[in-house]
Amino acid sequence: MTSMECMPIIAGSVTRRKTRQVAISWDGNLVTVGGDAPIRIQSMTNTETTDVIATAIQVKQLAQAGSELVRITVNTPEAAAAVPLIREQLDRMDINVPLIGDFHYNGHMLLTNFSACAEALSKYRINPGNVGQGKKRDTQYAQMIEVACKYDKPVRIGVNWGSLDPLLLARIMDENAQRVKPWNAQSLMYEALITSATESALRAQDIGLAADHILLSCKVSGVQDLIALYRELSRRCDYALHLGLTEAGMGSKGIVASTAALSVLLQEGIGDTIRVSLTPEPDGVRTVEVLVAQEILQTMALRAFSPMVISCPGCGRTTSNLFQTLASKIQIYLREQMPVWKLKFRGVENMHVAVMGCIVNGPGESKYANIGISLPGSGESPAAPVFVDGQKICTLRGDDIAESFQEIIEDYVKTRYAPEIPLEQLKKG
């Protein structure tokens, strides 16, 4: 078949699954999840919640990095008492991000006995496997949902494979024993997770919580497990869904595993909020998980957060580390500038910057970026052509190539994302 007989090749696209939209509000602010809302990024603090200042500072760091919802541990009376103080501190710092309370085991008591905590939180996370055993389970679960109804708070019913309700699991196994062809252990685990989430959601609605106040999650640590689970969960319900690979790990392993699982589901239109659950390196910053989540969404063209740097990996033609240093400097510079730029320049987050290492593909790749530079490789003359919107505007030479290129980017942002200025004027100035 010749190219004349082929159908045109169309870029992939994502059709989002239809879900109920959940409104998360606090002090006149609002973040929507599900429906036609953007896919939101969530993170979680790892500070002691009783340390009000440390927790507020970490929430601030996560929010400024781009986390749109931040979860905190509420596990003791002291932690519950600290929640409204954390909210007050965030308000004083002008950090407008919703706080989510993470409850296990004693959440019914904490939400009931600490009304200021219940009010200060914007959303609750409840694990139905950790709300009590036997007859106490239904009572204690109902108490938590009743508090959510009282204060008009949405709830994420978050099931985890490491803490399934043993009675539910026993029921699922009994039902399986009656099948002509019993399911294997893996399928039983999937069914128990989905049943726990959906039955808990229906129970919450029976108690009085509206369906548009409910989000679901089923967390596992295996990539293929997560994909299989959420495909079936999304088929069975229309609640907003939170995606995350639990216990993903640290470093490249955690990043790759989370990216692999989330990307497949997001491409299929499944997922309304995401979290990348990375184990931080010793003394590492918590905000890495937020940046990874942003990059997953941005590289899949689902959202845009910051200008992207396209750079080559290097080869035997690029023994100089000049292009590596420049790519790193420019990426850091763009991220640092974004808090200011996003207030002034609409659409700047969609900008692509190319930093290429040699003349083989460099000029061509640079032309396809909004602004690009093709640095000399090993043994080549120290001349670096710069391209703006596909046109060469100058060639940089000397020891200050990085500084000069940064100035060109600054000028481009001010002209491209503000009232239009002709390219000729950009060349002159």
From TrEMBL:
Matching InterPro entries: Dihydropteroate_synth-like_sf, IspG_bac, IspG_bac-typ, IspG_C, IspG_TIM, NO2/SO3_Rdtase_4Fe4S_sf
Details of cofactor binding? Binds 1 [4Fe-4S] cluster.
Q: What is this protein called?
A: 4-hydroxy-3-methylbut-2-en-1-yl diphosphate synthase (flavodoxin)
Which source organism does the UniProt entry give? Candidatus Pandoraea novymonadis
Where does the IspG C-terminal domain start and stop, copy by copy? 309-410
EC number of the protein: 1.17.7.3
The protein's annotated pathway: Isoprenoid biosynthesis; isopentenyl diphosphate biosynthesis via DXP pathway; isopentenyl diphosphate from 1-deoxy-D-xylulose 5-phosphate: step 5/6
* Catalytic activity, reaction form: (2E)-4-hydroxy-3-methylbut-2-enyl diphosphate + oxidized [flavodoxin] + H2O + 2 H(+) = 2-C-methyl-D-erythritol 2,4-cyclic diphosphate + reduced [flavodoxin]
**Chain sites annotated for binding [4Fe-4S] cluster:** C312, C315, C358, E365
Relate the protein's function as given in its record: Converts 2C-methyl-D-erythritol 2,4-cyclodiphosphate (ME-2,4cPP) into 1-hydroxy-2-methyl-2-(E)-butenyl 4-diphosphate.
Concerning NCBIfam families, the annotation shows: ispG_gcpE, PRK00366.1
Family as reported in the entry's similarity comment: Belongs to the IspG family.
Q: Where is the IspG TIM-barrel domain?
A: 31-292
Q: Which major enzyme category is it?
A: oxidoreductase
Q: Which UniProt keywords apply?
A: 4Fe-4S, Iron, Iron-sulfur, Isoprene biosynthesis, Metal-binding, Oxidoreductase
User: What are the names of the required cofactors?
Assistant: [4Fe-4S] cluster
